[in-house]
Amino acid sequence: MKRNYAAALQDGAQQWLNEFLKDSKFAWKRQLDLVRPYPRNLARAAELLGEKHYMYASLRARQHYFEGKTIAPLRLGPNRALGDKALAEFRASLDWQPNQPHVFIRIGQIYQYMFMMPDSAEWYFKQAAELAPNWVLPLTQLAALHSSDTKQFEKARFYLEEAERLDSNAVDVSYWFAKYFEAINDLAQAEKYYRKSIHLDPENNFHIELGSIFNSTDRFAESQIEFEIAVKIDSTDTQALMLLGISFQNQNKLVDAEHCFRVVSKIDTTSAAAHFYLGLNYSYQGQPLQAEAQYTLATNIDPYFSEAFYNIACLKTGQQQSESAFTYLEKALQAGFKDIDLIKTDSDLATLRALPEWQALMKKYFPDQPKE
């Protein structure tokens, strides 16, 4: 009875690992809620079977793996504190069972995405590739690393071709080929591989990437279609909603754009970008007071949102409030705004550039620039 209960407790975690190791589509699914109970279930199964049982080490290894996975989802981005905490769990997993390619993959991802240490990430991905030579994921992770982080595109291409030889229909392979071609600015090939990724895995939201390609090449009507599909797949995806709003804005569909940005601001109250783009919307509609209010909300959320400070400076210049305009322009510069060419040519700042305070401000923040 005790053995049957222990088997039931660890069954879900084992099925998850089996799928992860054999199906590249599985790795793309958002499953944090699904795996959250696994560490507790695996710990309980290990306690029921006891330390002398042949499965004890395996259960403890999987317990620590899933513990680390729930601590630090990849979508968090750079975060040393959480990365260290998760890394301790993954290392504990390897202490119980040293040769687990999926653990090496996860450690590599921690070093790549959370610690920003590509050399260490590469070492762990290579270890995973050696342990599982027929698994495409270590190869596509190496390709992703060299496409996005190290910019060693020949290496990226090599690993992608190796992965393609293993499984030409793996969604991982087509997706990272698309990312590779996008990185080298071959957008026609990138579009081709994003379309293949969508064909291979229609449930995933690769429409966001394809739509972004269209946005970057001014194919706004096509980008709108892709982002609308992405929102249908997940109506709470703030990235898809933001990009759909920007696509509407680029087509001067300002009412539709405003709706998207307001939905984002309700879903994610910490989104400074939603308020920034609402500010742009109001600026385009000739409503400077409403625009300034939204830009101010953006800077309240993110004090380093330099573009929002800059846009307020432009609004203040247009309202002939030069003292306030200089204040906000300096706030933009303090927050990191560095586009000197725009500052020197932007027609919105023309009247400021004619004032004596202008040269002093430029000399303070751009001392190497020649005097106008």
What does this protein look like?
The chain is an all-alpha fold. The chain is elongated, with a radius of gyration of 25 Å. The N and C termini lie far apart (86 Å). Among the domains are: 1-133, Alpha Horseshoe (Serine Threonine Protein Phosphatase 5, Tetratricopeptide repeat), CATH 1.25.40.10; 305-372, no CATH class. The chain has 22 helices and no strands.
Average pLDDT metric: 93
Structure classification: mainly alpha
Question: Into which percentage range does the β-strand content fall?
Answer: under 5%
Q: Helicity, in percent?
A: over 70%
Q: Look up the CATH topology of one domain.
A: Serine Threonine Protein Phosphatase 5, Tetratricopeptide repeat
Tell me the number of strands.
0
Name of the CATH first level of one domain: Mainly Alpha
Morphology call: elongated
Query: SSE string, helix = H, strand = E?
Result: HHHHHHHHHHHHHHHHHHHHHH
Task: Give the N-terminus to C-terminus distance in angstroms.
Answer: 86 Å
Name of the CATH superfamily of one domain: Tetratricopeptide repeat domain
CATH architectural name of one domain: Alpha Horseshoe
Quaternary organization: single chain
Biggest sheet statistics = none
Number of helices: 22
Any idea what the radius of gyration is? 25 Å
Give the low-confidence spans: none
How are the SSEs placed, and which strands pair?
Layout: H1 2-22, H2 32-35, H3 38-49, H4 56-71, H5 80-96, H6 101-114, H7 118-131, H8 136-148, H9 153-166, H10 171-183, H11 187-200, H12 207-216, H13 220-233, H14 238-250, H15 254-267, H16 272-284, H17 288-301, H18 306-318, H19 322-334, H20 340-345, H21 350-353, H22 357-365
Helix pairs in contact: 1-3, 3-4, 4-5, 5-6, 6-7, 6-8, 7-8, 8-9, 8-10, 9-10, 10-11, 11-12, 12-13, 12-14, 13-14, 14-15, 14-16, 15-16, 16-17, 17-18, 18-19
